[in-house]
Design goal:
The chain has five helices and five strands. It is an alpha+beta fold. A hairpin with a 7-residue loop joins strand 1 and strand 2. It is globular. The model has no long low-confidence stretch (mean pLDDT 88).
C-alpha cells in the first residue's frame, strides 16, 4: 500500500462491513471524518495505543511518512493545525459540564448551517468528562453536468434480494470515470460536482446483496 488514499479506502470498506453486521437499514457515514478524528488522536498517542490505531487505519501499511508524533502539548496543537486545519479548545467539564455541552452543540450547529442541532443531548456530558472529539461535516454542491428533471423515471430499487421499492431515479447520458472492482465484485462511478474539485463516488455491487 503506497498512499494514504489507499489506506482510507481500505478503512472505508472495513467500516462498511462492520456496519452491515448490525444494521439492516440504510447506512450513512463519512469515512474521512472518522479517519480524521482517529488521526488526531494518533498524533498524541504512543506505544500500544498508537500501534492499534495505526493498524485499524492501515497507516502501518503506508510507505508515506505517517509516523509524525507530538511530544509536547504545543507541538500537538501545531500538528493538529498543520495536518487537519483545526484546533483544540479548552473547556471546564468538571465545573461547567452543561455550559460545555451547549458550547460544543453551538459550534456543530454553526459548522453545519444549522442542519445538526443538539448533537449532545442533556446528560451526555458530565463533570467526569475529560475529552470530547467532535467532527462536523456539511456539504451542498451543484453537479458539473446537471440532471434534467424530465429524464427522471420510476425504477425498481432492491434493498435486498427479496423485496424492491419503486423510486424516482435520475438519468443522464454522459462521459464519466468508471471502473470494475474485481476484488470487491462491484462497479464504481465518479460523478463530479461543479468545478471538479469534488466528486460523488458511487459503488454498485454486482449482486444485490454484495459488498
Amino acid at each position: 500500500m503506497n498512499s494514504l488514499s489507499e489506506a482510507n479506502t481500505k478503512f472505508m470498506f472495513d467500516l462498511f462491513q462492520q456496519f452491515r453486521k448490525s444494521k439492516e437499514n440504510n447506512i450513512f457515514y463519512s469515512p474521512i471524518s472518522i479517519t480524521s478524528a482517529l488521526g488526531m488522536v494518533l498524533l498524541g498517542a504512543k506505544d500500544n495505543t498508537a500501534q492499534q490505531i495505526s493498524k485499524v487505519l492501515h497507516f502501518d501499511q503506508v510507505t508515506e511518512n505517517t509516523t509524525e508524533k507530538a511530544a509536547t502539548y504545543h507541538e500537538y496543537l501545531d500538528a493538529i493545525k498543520k495536518f487537519y486545519q483545526t484546533s483544540v479548545e479548552s473547556t471546564d467539564f468538571a465545573n461547567a459540564p452543561e455550559e460545555s455541552r451547549k458550547k460544543i452543540n453551538s459550534w456543530v450547529e454553526s459548522q453545519t448551517n444549522e442542519k445538526i442541532k443538539n448533537l449532545f443531548p442533556d446528560g451526555t456530558i458530565g463533570n467526569d468528562t475529560t475529552l470530547v472529539l467532535v467532527n462536523a461535516i456539511y456539504f451542498k454542491g451543484q453537479w458539473e453536468n446537471k440532471f434534467k428533471k424530465e429524464n427522471t423515471k420510476e425504477e425498481k430499487f432492491w434493498p435486498n434480494k427479496n423485496t424492491y421499492k419503486s423510486v424516482q431515479m435520475m438519468r443522464q447520458y454522459n462521459s464519466f470515470n468508471f471502473a470494475l472492482l474485481e476484488d470487491v465484485q462491484a462497479k464504481v462511478l465518479e460523478i463530479p460536482y461543479k468545478g471538479k474539485d469534488l466528486s460523488m463516488i458511487v459503488l454498485l455491487p454486482n449482486e444485490i446483496d454484495g459488498l
